[in-house]
Amino acid sequence: MTPTDSHFLSSTRAFYDAIAEDYADHFRDVIAGKPSDLEVLAAFAELVGEGGQVADLGCGPGRVTAHLASLGLSVFGLDLSGSMLAIARRENPGLRFEQGSMLELGLADGTLAGVVSWYSSIHTPVDRLPALFEEFRRVLAPGGHLLLAFQVGDEPRHLDRPFGHPVALDFERRRPEFVAGLLEEAGFTLHSRTERPPHAETGESAPQAFLIARR
Taking the alpha carbons of 126, 17, 57, 147 in that order, is the dihedral positive or negative? Predict the structure, then answer.
């Protein structure tokens, strides 16, 4: 792990540790009322198949993890933030949650049927995305599927003092065609690409993109 990796990982961890309880309360219904999001998650679950082993990477308080479990997947969550994981474990005592980095997954090659990165690649510097996608591919079995969700745009959104906490972080916005190109370079085949306008009711300020790719 390079010093740059260490810096952005520690900054991301500190940010979410500070805001975890407020974040979890504010985004309690993170996917409710968003039909396109629910359709994408359902399509992913159908591709993986009932009982498929899935990792929800950057799971936060575990809301998407729990939804994937309700769709019949054998899913566990992973996150950098211990405070986020405490909430996930408290609210979902029947599910498994682990602390760690998406860039260095402690999993054997080809062990998963699916990987989900639901708005969790948005803090990874662009020059580290190829390594991130290669790690996703490494842990997927041949024919396994990856689901990526992210905001669309060319400039990051800088968030300073969220909920009054003395922390700040950049949220990267990226073009779907650029991300799709990186996925193909990492050995994935794009299965589907979905975009939708921002959901103003939940404070979204940019279009959203969802890519499903196959190893």
Answer: negative
Inter-residue contact 199 to 62 (CB < 8 Å): no
Query: What span, in angstroms and rounded, lies between the C-alpha atoms of 161 and 10?
Result: 17
pTM, entire model: 0.93
Query: Do 152 and 106 touch, CB atoms closer than 8 A?
Result: no
Other beta carbons less than 10 A from residue 29's beta carbon: 10
Strands 112-118 and 53-57: parallel
> Are the C-beta atoms of residues 4 and 10 closer than 8 Å to each other?
no
The angle formed by the CA atoms of residues 131, 103 and 205, to the nearest 5 degrees, is: 85
CB 2 within 8 A of CB 160: no
Residue pair 123/8 in contact by the 8 Å Cβ criterion: yes
pLDDT at 87: 97
Q: 3-class SS at 132?
A: helix
CA distance 138 to 173: 25
Mean pLDDT of the 6-25 span: 90
Q: Which pLDDT value is given to residue 112?
A: 98
Residues 104-127 as b/e (b if ≥16 CB within 10 A, e otherwise) read ebebeeeebbbbbbbbbbbbbeee
What's the CA gap between 191 and 76, in Å, rounded? 23
Backbone angles phi, psi at 151, to 5 degrees: -85, 145
What angle in degrees, to the nearest 10, is found between the helix axes of 35-48 and 63-70? Answer: 60
